[in-house]
Amino acid sequence: MSTSVLVVGATGATGKHVVQQLLDKGQKVKVIVRSKQRMLDALKQSYDKEHLVVTEASLLDLSDKELQNQVQDTRAVVSCLGHNGDFQGIFGHPRCLVTDAAQRLTSAMRASSSGPTKKFILMGSGAVDNPSGTDDKRSFSERCILFLLRHLIPPHKDNELAAAYMHSLGKDSGIEWAVVRPIGLIDGEVSKYTLYDKTIERLFGGGVATRANVAKCMVDLIVDKPMWQKYKFQMPVLHDTEQKVDEKK
After folding, report:
1. pLDDT tens across 204-237, in order?
2. DSSP state, residue 182
3. pLDDT in tens, 24-49
4. Which stretches of the chain are assigned E, i.e. beta strand?
5. Where would you tag: which of 102, 115, 167, 201 has the fewest CB atoms within 10 A of its CB?
6. Which whole number is the average pLDDT over 168-186?
């Protein structure tokens, strides 16, 4: 029976919160990281050492068979992968890290599928529109800005491609999925968050979401069955609840 959760991007600013929160709930966690020591250093709270399995490797360097082995005994896969904020991270390779990882992981999940349907949860971006077309139309100035981001900043295009890929999976791929789109990521503590079905804030409207709350949402999607039933195959936008958001915008 699938019992563990695989987290990729686990040493990142959001991924480390996902791992810690899962361990705090007594969940078994597997991670694929470049540095095992960096992963261990990122975990501040005590946890059952037997509940964490670390594979030291570069995700995209793993073979298809190795990825299938990684997802074989998991009930959910969480991707918190993103590009580093330095010049190499923004303009270097791999340009499509998030998209390539999503494609390879979901392909591995389908190839190794057995037993209950597995979940794939992707951390997206509130600056990326839902490919389904359900988001409110952005203003002309916002569309111009996004056009420039799409053509000048590779990570933004990567996030758009990843969202488009997840949307293309539909509901008949044998995988249940969700894309969490946080707005205005910042550091901060766990508090309350609110999920919206579509973007309700302007591109630079001031809404924020702490990385810890994004992690909490992703963990909740794994352990809370009613919540998963509500948001599977969706791309909810996440705001910290304390932020006042005008839903009429």
Report:
1. 556 899 999 999 999 999 999 999 999 999 999 9
2. E
3. 999 999 999 999 999 999 998 888 88
4. 4-8, 28-33, 52-56, 74-79, 118-123, 175-182, 185-186, 193-196, 209-210, 237-240
5. 115
6. 92
What is the model's pTM?
0.87
For residue 248, give every residue at least 6 positions away whose Cβ sits within 8 Å of its Cβ, in sequence order, or none. none
User: Are the C-beta atoms of 58 and 82 separated by less than 8 Å?
Assistant: no
Q: Are 92 and 21 in contact (CB under 8 A)?
A: no
Residue ranges per structural domain of the chain: 4-240
How far, in Å, CA of 153 to CA of 95, rounded? 10
Stretch 150-173: mean pLDDT, rounded?
A: 86
Residue type at 62 in one-letter notation: L
Backbone angles phi, psi at 157, to 5 degrees: -65, -40
Q: Which CATH code, of 3.30.70.260, 3.40.50.1400, 3.30.565.10, 3.40.50.720, is assigned to 4-240?
A: 3.40.50.720
Q: Is the dihedral of CA 31, 95, 63, 124 positive or negative?
A: positive
Residue 113 neighbours by CB distance under 10 Å: 17
Q: How many whole angstroms separate alpha carbon 59 and alpha carbon 40? A: 18
Question: Could you tell me the CA-to-CA distances from 136 to 38, 85, 130, 197, 200 in Å, in that order?
Answer: 41, 29, 10, 11, 7
